């Protein structure tokens, strides 16, 4: 029982040394770590409540996806029947109740109509199921119902794109180390450390950003425009930053270029005046269209429209053939930057709504770390002194175990790149307490056995044996509650559970193996006739 | 050096004899706690009811009524104010604006910030949270589910490891601890938020830890003294583990005390809950769960039917001797 072969001693020492080594990077500032050449070692991340920053939970409005799919399908069906030869005559096309339905006027064309629209559906997954069900009702009416699998695939696809767009838009803000992760079926978590005012971020995220370029309708009568009446073929859009002061503008309904044909937009400076400008660039199809339009409309303005709001309506000074243009105007460096982001970040396939938002100021975060560290040090000191007074030599062993415990927990957290949050610090302080409990159990048991008249070696052996069983049971229970917290808890509960779970394993190891090794080597060296405990 | 002993050796306190008094007191406290939760309710944070919370840190201790007046005059809904341990820090809670528009919440936050800055130029807004009703409902559900499943899992564990009486007594004792903690929050009006759910789960974990230690000792003694009267056996086990119980509770309370005094205001409710939970949990290990074992008819002679499970660390067993 009290046998400790050399390899066992060395492996315990090795584990503990590795623990201390891996804990060091998290305990010193990053810059110091880099200077002494251990900047590459993993560190513990600080949660937003400690580092300060913004946390947003976004939920996709998946109903939008269903509607978009329906509209898109309606468009495709119309095109398909028109293109068929002979053209299929359909009527009463409707998109009520989430399904698309239409009549085929000539019963002879029904089969070919079904065949045509069936070709528009796609298989989903491996089961051979398709994304739309096509059925015929009363031999004249064709209905197309989206299947669940099709819907799920569409939502999944939209979420993938949305996550990417969110990532791109946040990267544009130039903040450091943002975290953007999918959560569940229709949610995205965004965490931006250090961000104090998430409004700019939210307004960027909230937009579905449908970008279009349209020609301004110069024939429109300004007084009519102010009343909201547009000439035929045109529409009135809001234009909040209109230099003329009227917040409306008439533009042609037909878009000359779509947002997805724009390949890049960047803030820059004019080569002569050095004034801030926005440089835009189109892909080849967009460049061809833009060249044609600008050639025909020199001197006239075109409007850049984001979500039906005109961002800007610059004049076409000259034909732009190469696909690259520079938009100048009353930009500041900042507004040029915002404009480029708006132009560049493209279209979100689905609207995102902020359903949870938490922002912690850097001061509060720093205060919390400070308070947490002070509390931990005081708690540790109090416990160390108390244990020393109570158990003497065995108290020293217990204290060593607890101190190493702290280092190894930090190391394991760093190794897994775990995030330390405020409740995590609380979990830490609690772990100090429960790690002590294991040692208390052992030491009390040793006291008890000695009181029963056993010699030191027997007392230590029995003390560890009996207490280990209890510690194991108690830790199992702690482990169960930790797992439940990790699986079911949200945010802070999870942060707490992670520290707790790591603490359970580490404290079991240090209490049961490490202190036993120290106790046994003491017994071997000194062979005391009575244990002072 | 003489070593510290919080509990003298070989105590022989008749815990079981006092159990009727203890049951009476426990019943009374439990009823009071339930009444407090029932009538006053919990001061649920925005995590659980939805809404927005702005934390403002003033340079001087603010006049709460003035702050309330300032926010009230904005017509942004019913405001509720709370000061943390640090009287300069005030949390301002408001319902979410009726409009679901993205900008509406921001507008409210900005209005409140602007109004408060106008009257107190040096105020700092250190934190703000907005939680929609949908999310808060999920958080409530997850929180309740986490607590419920943790309790159930642990009770089942005790039942499987020991006798069914251990499972039942543990379950009752934990429900008692939970009610006490909730009663404490109902009476003190401390804000009950997500962090507190972590605290509650920790209380459960700690309390069970305590019960396992005593249950384990009872089991050990049941094997040793088959003929002993169960009341005496429980007394013996509780007395034998008493030094450990006191020692550990004091150590954990020392650690938590440091956290309460120096850990900053964000964790205060959390730490207070945990300290109370440890006292209540220790009490319930001795009185509720151990004494209940006797009431449930646990008897030592039944015990040998069930062999010790080999899963437990170093439970007694016989193996071939290695040479």
TrEMBL record, chain A:
The record's subcellular location field reads:
Cell membrane
Family note: Belongs to the SecD/SecF family. SecD subfamily.
Its function? Part of the Sec protein translocase complex. Interacts with the SecYEG preprotein conducting channel. SecDF uses the proton motive force (PMF) to complete protein translocation after the ATP-dependent function of SecA.
Residue stretches making up the Protein export membrane protein SecD/SecF C-terminal domain: 352-523
Naturally occurring in which organism (per UniProt): Sphingomonas paeninsulae
The cross-references to Pfam families, in alphabetical order and at most eight, read: Sec_GG, SecD_1st, SecD_SecF_C, SecDF_P1_head
Q: Where is the Protein translocase subunit SecDF P1 domain?
A: 159-217
The UniProt entry, under NCBIfam families, shows: 2A0604s01 (TIGR00916), secD (TIGR01129)
InterPro entries per the UniProt record, alphabetical: Acrflvin-R, SecD, SecD/SecF_arch_bac, SecD/SecF_CS, SecD_1st, SecD_SecF_C, SecD_SecF_C_bact, SecDF_P1_head
* Every SecDF P1 head subdomain domain range: 244-350
Which named protein is this?
Protein translocase subunit SecD
Per the UniProt record, which residue ranges are transmembrane?
A: 369-389, 396-416, 422-442, 471-490, 496-519
Membrane topology term reads:
Multi-pass membrane protein
Q: Report the GO molecular function annotations.
A: protein-transporting ATPase activity
Top-down, what is the taxonomic lineage of the species of origin? Bacteria, Pseudomonadati, Pseudomonadota, Alphaproteobacteria, Sphingomonadales
UniProtKB/TrEMBL annotation, chain B:
Keywords recorded for this protein, A-Z: Cell membrane, Membrane, Protein transport, Translocation, Transmembrane, Transmembrane helix, Transport
Subcellular location per UniProt equals: Cell membrane
- One Gene Ontology CC term in the entry: plasma membrane
Instruction: Name its GO BP terms in alphabetical order.
Output: intracellular protein transmembrane transport; protein targeting; protein transport by the Sec complex
Domain called Protein export membrane protein SecD/SecF C-terminal: residue spans = 112-297
A molecular function (GO) term: protein-transporting ATPase activity
Report the transmembrane regions from the record.
Answer: 20-38, 139-160, 167-188, 194-214, 246-267, 273-296
InterPro entries, A to Z: SecD/SecF_arch_bac (IPR022813), SecD/SecF_bac (IPR022645), SecD/SecF_CS (IPR022646), SecD_SecF_C (IPR048634), SecD_SecF_C_bact (IPR055344), SecF_bac (IPR005665)
Q: Per the annotation, which location comes first and is thus the protein's main one?
A: membrane
Q: How does it sit in the membrane?
A: Multi-pass membrane protein
Name the Pfam families on file: Sec_GG, SecD_SecF_C
Presence of the UniProt keyword Cell membrane in the record: yes
Annotated family: Belongs to the SecD/SecF family. SecF subfamily.
Q: How is the quaternary structure described?
A: Forms a complex with SecD. Part of the essential Sec protein translocation apparatus which comprises SecA, SecYEG and auxiliary proteins SecDF-YajC and YidC.
Q: What does this protein do?
A: Part of the Sec protein translocase complex. Interacts with the SecYEG preprotein conducting channel. SecDF uses the proton motive force (PMF) to complete protein translocation after the ATP-dependent function of SecA.
Give the protein's recorded name. Answer: Protein-export membrane protein SecF
Q: Which lineage is the organism of this entry classified under, starting from the top rank? A: Bacteria, Pseudomonadati, Pseudomonadota, Alphaproteobacteria, Sphingomonadales
């Amino acid at each position: 029982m009290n046998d400790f072969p050399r390899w066992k001693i060395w492996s315990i020492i090795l584990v503990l040394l590795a623990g201390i080594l891996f804990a060091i990077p998290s305990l010193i500032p990053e810059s110091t770590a880099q200077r002494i050449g251990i900047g590459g070692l993993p560190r513990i991340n600080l949660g937003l409540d400690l580092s300060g920053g913004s946390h947003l939970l976004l939920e996709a409005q998946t109903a939008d996806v269903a509607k978009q799919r329906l509209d898109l399908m309606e468009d495709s069906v119309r095109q398909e029947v028109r293109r068929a030869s002979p053209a299929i005559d359909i009527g009463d096309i409707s998109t009520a109740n989430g399904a698309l339905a239409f009549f085929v006027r000539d019963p002879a064309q029904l089969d070919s109509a079904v065949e045509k629209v069936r070709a528009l559906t796609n298989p989903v997954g491996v089961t051979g199921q398709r994304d739309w069900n096509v059925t015929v009702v009363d031999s004249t009416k064709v209905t197309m119902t989206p299947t669940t699998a099709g819907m799920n695939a569409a939502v999944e696809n939209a979420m993938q794109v949305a996550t990417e767009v969110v990532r791109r838009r946040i990267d544009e803000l130039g903040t450091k180390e943002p975290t953007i992760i999918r959560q569940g079926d229709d949610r995205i978590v965004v965490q931006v450390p250090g961000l104090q005012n998430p409004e700019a971020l939210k307004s960027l995220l909230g937009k579905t950003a449908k970008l279009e370029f349209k020609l301004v309708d110069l024939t429109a009568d300004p007084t009519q425009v102010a009343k909201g009446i547009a000439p035929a073929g045109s529409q009135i859009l809001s234009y909040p930053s209109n230099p003329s002061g009227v917040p409306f503008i008439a533009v042609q309904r037909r878009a000359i270029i779509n947002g997805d044909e724009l390949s890049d937009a960047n803030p820059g400076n004019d080569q002569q005046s050095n004034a801030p400008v926005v440089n835009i660039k189109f892909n080849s199809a967009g460049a061809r269209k833009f060249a044609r339009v600008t050639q025909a409309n020199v001197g006239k303005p075109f409007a850049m429209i984001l979500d039906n709001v005109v961002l800007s309506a610059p004049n076409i000074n000259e034909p732009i053939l190469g696909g690259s243009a520079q938009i100048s105007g009353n930009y500041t460096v900042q507004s040029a930057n915002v404009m480029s982001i708006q132009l560049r970040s493209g279209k979100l396939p689905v609207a995102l709504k902020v359903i949870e938002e938490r922002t912690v100021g850097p001061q509060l975060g720093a205060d919390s770390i400070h308070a947490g560290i002070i509390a931990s040090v005081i708690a540790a000191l109090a416990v160390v002194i108390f244990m020393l007074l109570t158990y003497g030599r065995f108290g020293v062993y217990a204290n060593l175990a607890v101190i190493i415990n702290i280092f190894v927990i930090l190391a394991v957290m760093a190794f897994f790149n775990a995030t330390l949050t405020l409740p995590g610090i609380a979990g830490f302080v609690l772990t100090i307490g429960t790690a002590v409990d294991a040692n208390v159990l052992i030491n009390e048991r040793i006291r008890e056995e000695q009181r029963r008249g056993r010699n030191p070696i027997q007392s230590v052996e029995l003390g560890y044996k009996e207490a280990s069983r209890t510690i194991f049971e108690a830790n199992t229970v702690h482990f169960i509650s930790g797992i439940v917290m990790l699986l079911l808890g949200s945010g802070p509960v999870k942060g707490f559970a992670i520290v707790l779970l790591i603490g359970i394993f580490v404290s079991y190891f240090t209490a049961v193996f490490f202190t036993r090794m120290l106790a046994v080597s003491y017994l071997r060296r000194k062979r005391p006739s009575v244990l002072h405990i | 050096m003489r070593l510290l002993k919080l509990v003298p050796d070989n105590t022989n306190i008749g815990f079981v004899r006092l159990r009727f008094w203890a049951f009476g007191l426990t019943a009374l406290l439990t009823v009071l706690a339930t009444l407090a939760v029932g009538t006053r309710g919990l001061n649920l944070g925005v995590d659980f009811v939805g809404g927005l919370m702005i934390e403002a840190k003033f340079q001087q201790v603010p006049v709460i009524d003035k702050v309330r007046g300032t926010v009230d005059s904005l017509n942004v809904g019913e405001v509720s104010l709370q000061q943390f341990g640090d009287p300069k820090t005030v949390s301002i809670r408001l319902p979410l604006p009726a409009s679901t528009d993205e900008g509406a919440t921001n507008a409210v936050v900005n209005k409140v910030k602007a109004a408060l800055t106008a009257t107190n130029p040096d105020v700092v807004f250190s934190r703000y949270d907005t939680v929609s009703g949908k999310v808060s409902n999920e958080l409530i559900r997850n929180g309740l589910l986490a607590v419920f499943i943790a309790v159930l899992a642990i009770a089942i564990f005790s039942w499987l490891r020991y006798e069914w009486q251990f499972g039942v007594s543990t379950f009752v004792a934990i429900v008692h601890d939970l009610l006490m903690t909730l009663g404490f929050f109902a009476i003190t009006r401390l804000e009950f938020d997500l962090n507190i759910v972590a605290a509650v789960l920790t209380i459960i974990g700690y309390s069970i830890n305590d019960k396992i230690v005593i249950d384990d000792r009872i089991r050990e003694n049941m094997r040793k003294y088959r003929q002993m009267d169960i009341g005496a056996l429980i007394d013996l086990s509780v007395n034998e583990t008493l030094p450990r119980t006191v020692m550990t509770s004091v150590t954990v309370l020392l650690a938590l005390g440091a956290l309460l005094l120096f850990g900053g205001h964000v964790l205060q409710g959390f730490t207070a809950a945990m300290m109370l939970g440890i006292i209540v949990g220790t009490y319930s290990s001795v009185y509720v769960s151990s004494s209940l074992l006797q009431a449930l008819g646990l008897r030592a002679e039944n015990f040998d039917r069930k062999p010790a499970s080999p899963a437990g660390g170093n439970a007694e067993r016989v193996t071939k001797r290695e040479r």
